[in-house]
Design goal:
- 2 copies of one chain form a homodimer.
- Chain A contains 9 helices and no strands.
- The longest helix of chain A is centred in the C-terminal third of the chain and has 23 residues, at 118-140.
- The termini of chain A are far apart.
- Chain A is an all-alpha fold.
- In chain A, helix 1 (9-23) packs across helix 2 (30-37), helix 5 (80-97) runs antiparallel to helix 9 and helix 7 crosses helix 8 (146-168).
- Chain A has a domain at 59-185: Orthogonal Bundle (Tetracycline Repressor, domain 2), CATH 1.10.357.
- At the A-B interface, helix 6, helix 7, helix 8 and helix 9 of A face helix 6, helix 7, helix 8 and helix 9 of B.
- The structure holds a DNA duplex.
Amino acid sequence: MARPRQFDETEVIESLMKVFWEKGYEATSMQDLVAASGLLKGSLYGAFGDKHALYLAALKHYDRTRIQAGIDMLDGDGSPRQKIARLFDSVIESTKRGIFAGGCLLCNASLEMAAINRPVKNEVKTTIRRLKLAIMEALRAQVADEDRAASLAAFIVSAYFGVRVLAKGGAPAAMIGDTRDHCLQLLP
Amino acid sequence: MARPRQFDETEVIESLMKVFWEKGYEATSMQDLVAASGLLKGSLYGAFGDKHALYLAALKHYDRTRIQAGIDMLDGDGSPRQKIARLFDSVIESTKRGIFAGGCLLCNASLEMAAINRPVKNEVKTTIRRLKLAIMEALRAQVADEDRAASLAAFIVSAYFGVRVLAKGGAPAAMIGDTRDHCLQLLP
DNA sequence: CTTATTATTGACCAATTGGTCAATAATATT
DNA sequence: AATATTATTGACCAATTGGTCAATAATAAG
């Protein structure tokens, strides 16, 4: 009884996300989003809402895809130490490739948007909690004490985020490796 | 033989810095800077250059003042453990106060600007190195091996930056404390 | 006092910003 | 085929963006 969408919603959000990821919220114009998505402004507004809503949708998509990919790396075989190592190595890897300049959209959103946009802050908080819980799960087999697992997970999340800041700031790659090594030292 | 400046340069840069610190580069307009500094646009351009130059000057001022204040906390009495504790406690402290929303301008600059502005990236790199060296210095008495001091310092800088991301993202304060505690565990 | 030099001022600019809307198009139901 | 409903389109908007510049003011040197 109505005209259907002419586009795939997820596909469009994926393209919007990439722009916000690379440029940040403020540096991204609606024109950029129009160009990246192939839709026109009116369609974007009609389907998703204003620029803040687009950003929030992009952030949620990042959670569902990229953060989830990170969490997936914590599954599978190996000791906690080996699992966490995979997390840090993925940062080192992407730093070496050095093509995409976005870094981590979650960190970017935390620093650029969380303080001024409540929904973004909530999303950031939720995703951090999710990441922390996944790390706790990865530690579960070897770290019996729940509180200790939680505090270790918090610590690892911090170091992981810190490394993302270093990487984007152009700090020597060795600093990332050093961080990784000291973190692993505290793990079974 | 010429008209002298009618303003104190450092004072003006301090006011500009606060705006960039709180809002970021893109979200700050020249109007914001005009309002904060009390100068007019022409004077700002004449004295410092364009918006990017203003930002860079602000970042350098942040290094000279706020980062230096952090480094100063590493001086004085106490074990390395106690010194580094002071660094993390200052973040916990400012999180509790919760008034100023800027977080750490160095981290903000790294994520928002380093990837797209070479001079900013260089300044970020330089300041990170300076911070790392100061931490090495704080470890020197107890950590004889230079390489070990360097890698420990890199690790601490990461955790410190990570904690700034967590803080701005609204993560529970306990995560910052947990990070602190695990870091200190690796220190003499 | 005159002059050379620099600082300050505010009007001005084209370009871009995020956002709206009436007209049109496409569909599913009846 | 007619209709109701939603999607798409692109022209349009006021406001703001970063930046410029000629006129004016203030000073130090001669």
